[in-house]
Amino acid sequence: MEIDYYEVLEISRNADASEIKKAYRKLALKYHPDRNQGDKEAEEKFKLVNEAYQALSDPKKRSIYDRYGKSGLDSQGFSSYSNMNSEDIMDDLSSIFESVFGQGFGGFGGFGGSSRSQSKYPLDVETNITLEFNEAVFGIKKNIKFKYKKPCVICDGTGSKDKQTETCSNCGGRGQVYYRQGFMTFSQTCEVCHGSGQIIKNKCKNCNGQGYEEVEENVTVDIPEGIDDGNQIRVASKGNINKYGDRGDLYVRISVKEDEHFIRHNDDIYLEVPVFFTQAILGESIKIPTLRGKTELNLPIGAKDKQQFIFRGEGVKNIHTKRKGNLIAQISIIYPKKLNEKQRELLEELQDSFGYENTPHENKFEGVFEKIKKWFTK
Question: Is pTM beyond 0.85 here?
């Protein structure tokens, strides 16, 4: 009976790359030899888990396996991993753990560094751009200038003038120096070779021994409508290039300038509307700006300071759901700082016209003054 790699990793046939990797990490830890010393069954399962992962994590191998099974992989020249010993498997498992926990995590005894995972620089590149408020709200195409690294053409990425490197004697070419505590083995980057596992005798003059050169490139990025401050945009295959020809991605981190009038909070827009006190008293209708034009704000009679009015669908379009947020108009009542004689007379006349309503404090505090007086005459 043929082994089912999906059953080995305990995943469905529709599992994506992240689910495959997650299942692999879980089972590799569970059956790792250092956790199951002397357990032959666990050792075999550990090898089988690695074999399944090697087949399903590679899109090309997975496609062949899905069509023709394990025999299809064998016929295409992809060797089985079932006969690998634990030491051989460690290299691949180490790269997985390093991608999750960083270079300083050794995890379990015997982890060696994968030569392919050792690189002088990460594959992904990050750059920053600043957008105007309206550019983030409505989207725009931006030409972005950035730099990426690629192997030096003179020394073929070795950093060596004669293209020759030597195995670092301090770490034995692993790039990591290991120390053990109980059944756990931890590691730190070798301070001699700085994690490369190799040392250089004669530095390349073109790259000063770094093994890479920087290239400037331009790319046009489609900034989607509704992007917000702090968001990132991934531009595939525009990152650094390693010596194997693999190229990482470019990550564009977004900063957005503030607007003089509009304040954004997620997909909602806040607008402070100055209102003269007579407008609030009379309940006037006033025109206010929106992101896309203007609208009427109908004030109720006696509108209060800081009162908010919501205009639904007048905010920012959500970058994922495409639904628009709201515009929240908050009024700020303005009172006159000085009055001339005519204005004072008119206001007093208006006040008198309300009769008893113009002295609400008299009803509110009736008897209070007498009560307070008694507090001090006992």
Answer: no
